[in-house]
Amino acid sequence: MGRRVLVTGGAGYIGSHTLVALQEAGFEVVVIDSLCNSSEIALQRVQMITGTSVRFYHGDIRDRALLEQIFTENSIHAVIHFAGLKAVGESSQKPIDYYQSNVTGSLVLLEAIQAYGVKQLVFSSSATVYGSEAPVPYVETLQTGSTSNPYGTSKWMVEQVLKDAALANPELSVALLRYFNPVGAHPSGLIGEDPQGIPNNLLPYIAQVAVGKRKELSVFGDDYPTPDGTCLRDYLHVMDLAEGHVCALEWLEGKTGTIAFNLGTGKGTSVLDIVRAFEQASGVSIPYRVAPRRAGDLPAFWADASKAKQDLGWVARLGLDQMMVDTWHWQTNNPHGYGIATNDR
Ligand code: NAD
Ligand code: UDP
């Protein structure tokens, strides 16, 4: 029998792709998800891809009784914690909701992890914890903090909690995975990113312009101090990111303490480079206009990903072209994501 992993937020974008990577690596998976930003169809699709079942508990990670039931009914070896709210802009309007879900949720989960003697935890952190003053490329040894929105602060807070928890409990080992910009979809086109309403993120927006759901892309600012004036980000394929979680789980075996890893490609790509790469992969032209800068955007950041390579043996293997091809494949196969067409979509 394979080792059993509890995946919180497993029906979500990164979670569902990670389920595929985990099952393919021989892990058994158990999912808890409130479906507040996802669909159970994603889990059915994961099962179609892998041919292996996913045990699903529908509920909130703050529900202590449900966590108790999950840990009692399943012998959980490790936890991968994706569940949380992730819209940066919304987090400034609804800070309490973000701290409730992301911080309180993590605390309740951590109590259960400790109570049931789970020894390994992988946490979805973000490049945003490096804050607005950090020099690029971001390296794990930089001081974190100076976050500029409640979402980023919630990730930073949970990192501190986990560091203290692992210090106090030598049995526990924690990997803080700091993701850069995950994009793309599983090559089957069966699972992918399915934002509710108007997408905040660049790739889902472009993909919806490409299928005619949105008129044009707004490029947020072309007067940044970058080669073409648009922002640079480190985009990585979601299947590479998913593999990073498998590598982190293997690595945590027998370790103690907390360790942070950047998961990115190590390269910065501009918004206009992305538009061109998508056009090339899809053969569809993307109308865009330059709009004012978006509040809070940093001009440029990318990862120093050498620590993940050295310690985890992980590198991002899939290039920009594959990221675009797979995004396009997912979008054309599922123009309405997992749902049906509605007016707000
Ligand atoms: P997502 O919204 O697709 O997935 C999150 C999942 O968690 C959803 O299925 C949602 O229904 C579930 N969920 C939310 N709150 C919950 C709660 N209280 N209890 C139970 N389930 C809950 O987001 P994603 O893009 O897959 O991101 C996964 C994780 O990675 C998040 O923690 C996010 O902050 C982090 N992250 C994402 C990115 C990104 O660009 N996508 C970058 C850095 C970090
Ligand atoms: N962006 C854009 N138009 C959009 C969405 C995003 O020009 O409709 C830009 C945004 O300003 C940033 C980059 O694309 O420079 C990536 O934005 P995203 O929201 O995807 O990721 P993040 O801001 O988290 O890096």
Account of the protein in words:
- The structure is a single chain.
- Helices cover 39% and strands 17% of the residues.
- It is globular and about 55 Å long.
- It has 11 helices and 13 strands.
- Residues 341-345 have low confidence and may be disordered.
- It is α/β, with parallel strands linked by helices and 345 residues long.
- The chain has a domain at 4-183 and 234-263: NAD(P)-binding Rossmann-like Domain (Rossmann fold), CATH 3.40.50.
- The strands form 4 sheets. The chain has a 7-stranded parallel beta sheet with strand order 3-2-1-4-5-6-11, sandwiched between helices. It has a two-stranded parallel sheet with strand order 7-10.
- Helix 3 packs parallel to helix 5 and helix 7 (202-210) crosses helix 11.
- The relative contact order is 0.14.
- Uridine-5'-diphosphate binds at residues 181, 200-202, 205, 217-220, 231, 233, 271, 294, 297.
Topology of this protein?
Blueprint: E1 4-8, H1 13-24, E2 28-33, H2 41-50, E3 55-58, H3 64-73, E4 78-81, H4 88-93, H5 95-115, E5 120-126, H6 150-168, E6 173-179, E7 181-183, H7 202-210, E8 217-220, E9 232-233, E10 235-237, H8 238-252, E11 257-263, E12 269-270, H9 271-282, E13 288-291, H10 306-312, H11 320-333
Parallel strand pairs: 1-2, 1-4, 2-3, 4-5, 5-6, 6-11, 7-10, 8-13
Antiparallel strand pairs: 9-12
Bound molecules: nicotinamide-adenine-dinucleotide and uridine-5'-diphosphate.
